[in-house]
Specification:
Beta-Lactamase; 436 residues; 2 domains; alpha+beta; 7-stranded antiparallel beta sheet; 6-stranded antiparallel beta sheet; 20 strands; Pnp Oxidase, Chain A
């Protein structure tokens, strides 16, 4: 059979790219079909077309491509095993989807009764003998007669949707309580007067973000800008590189490594660049980013959709594309005589033991700010953060004194902020300072 070029319409007039895109809106399960090849070696391939066919007799089917080299080897097996992948087995799925000879290296498995590999961690396995193999366009329709099966791990399965992998999101009857978020809101009240003073002095928006799991959540806002902002309380920004550097820069190597790998398929050169930016944030004591070609609305929507519980692969691709395009805009050198369009300035607030649970963020900044003015704004935000940090440390000391010798961790709920003397809000520094 002669196939039309990959992206040319077939006889029916349907363009292949449109065909794939349209059917990509229908989610499918993901399985790895395994068997023992003619030479006694384990063979496996990823399949997204597995389906049940009949109950009497028990038949199932999958549809490999006719030019698949892996299926050519799998067809020599006396039986095959369908391994239903779990939602946490995406890495295993990607491994078997690659053209490589060592797919089974370091992969734990044991034989089914007929000998085909059952992969450890799979949701279920279904062993079959070949009933028939029929040509259907550029694919085969493989019918298997089920000989044995079992459920290994009753958990959520891996799904393929719009060119990406995902899982079901099950509704909950109870609202999830996030202790870090509640604590972040309480800590933000300690910073309220500093927040409002900075926003008024600089005529920009000043906010408090709290580290909640793998997100930075906006827990307090003060607007000093006449320009509208799309940010609202509760808005989440994922802590993926280069975002969230002020939190990660105070963490150990394990947390840094986890942060670097939250965006999969990032090459080593890009990761090295993120590490360099992280070091700069650690040395300077703040993070700074410039505006790029994407407008605020586009950035806001990309972050919002990526952070949503209803995130789609399309949203993930768009977010990652914007991150890659804007990564070089983070932690730039600021020259005193230069002019800059700032996107944001973020300063960490250290608590006891130098823990960073909240940060102060300046945004909605006028365009064309001079380098010396940028340094002055950074210094203003750092002074405000220092005031808040001192309050948190003092509050922790007061709590220890009141506990009659029983130490209470500083990250447990604080007393109402009004119990601390607010003091004077820090004014703008009189002497401009250059950015370190």
């Amino acid at each position: 059979m002669t196939k039309p070029p990959q992206d040319q319409p077939a006889a029916g007039g349907v363009e292949p790219r449109h065909f794939r895109e349209t059917l990509g809106h229908y989610p499918t399960g993901v399985v790895i079909v395994t068997g023992i090849g003619a030479a006694g070696e384990p063979v496996g391939m990823v399949v997204g077309s597995f389906t049940s066919v009949s109950l009497h007799p028990p038949l199932v089917a999958f549809l490999p491509q006719r030019d698949s080299g892996t299926f050519a080897r799998l067809r020599d097996a006396s039986s095959f095993c369908v391994n239903v992948l779990a939602a946490d087995q995406e890495a295993l799925c990607r491994r078997f989807a690659q053209h490589r000879d060592d797919k089974f290296e370091d992969v734990r498995w044991h034989p089914a009764p007929g000998g085909a590999p059952i992969l450890d961690g799979a949701v279920a396995w279904i062993e079959c003998g070949y009933e028939s193999v029929v040509e259907a366009g550029d694919h085969y329709v493989v019918i298997g007669r089920v000989t044995d099966m079992d459920v290994l791990r009753p958990t959520l399965p891996l799904l393929f949707f719009q060119g990406g992998y995902g899982r079901f999101t099950l509704p909950s009857l109870l609202a999830q309580v996030e202790p870090d978020l509640i604590q972040g809101i309480r800590l933000a009240e300690v910073a309220r007067d500093q927040l409002e003073a900075v926003a008024a002095d600089l005529e920009a928006d000043c906010s408090v973000t709290a580290c909640v799991g793998e997100d930075a959540v906006f827990v307090a806002l003060a607007s000093g800008s006449a320009r509208p902002s799309r940010i609202s309380l509760g808005f989440r920004v994922p802590l993926v590189p280069p975002l969230g550097a002020v939190y990660i820069s105070h963490s150990g190597s394990v947390a840094v490594n986890e942060w670097l790998h939250r965006l999969p398929e990032t090459d080593e050169a890009t990761r090295a660049a993120y590490v360099g930016q992280l070091e700069r944030v650690r040395e300077r004591g703040y993070s700074l980013s410039l505006r790029g070609t994407h407008d605020d609305r586009e950035l806001f929507e990309a972050v919002r959709d990526y952070s949503s519980v209803d995130r789609l692969p399309e949203h993930e691709r768009r977010f990652k594309a914007i991150i890659q395009e804007t990564a070089a805009l983070y932690e730039p050198d600021i020259e005193p005589g230069g002019s800059y369009d700032l996107h944001s300035i973020v300063v960490p607030v250290e608590g006891p033991m130098q823990q960073v649970q909240i940060a102060l963020r300046l945004s909605n900044i006028p365009r064309g700010i001079g380098g010396r003015e940028v340094a002055r704004w950074v210094e203003c935000l750092k002074q405000a953060a220092a005031v808040v940090s001192a309050r948190l440390i003092e509050l922790d000391g007061l709590r220890d004194e009141e506990s009659d010798g029983l130490s209470t961790p500083w990250h447990e709920p604080l007393a109402v902020a009004s119990s601390m003397p607010k003091g004077e809000a820090h004014p703008m520094p009189d002497t401009p300072r250059e950015t370190p």
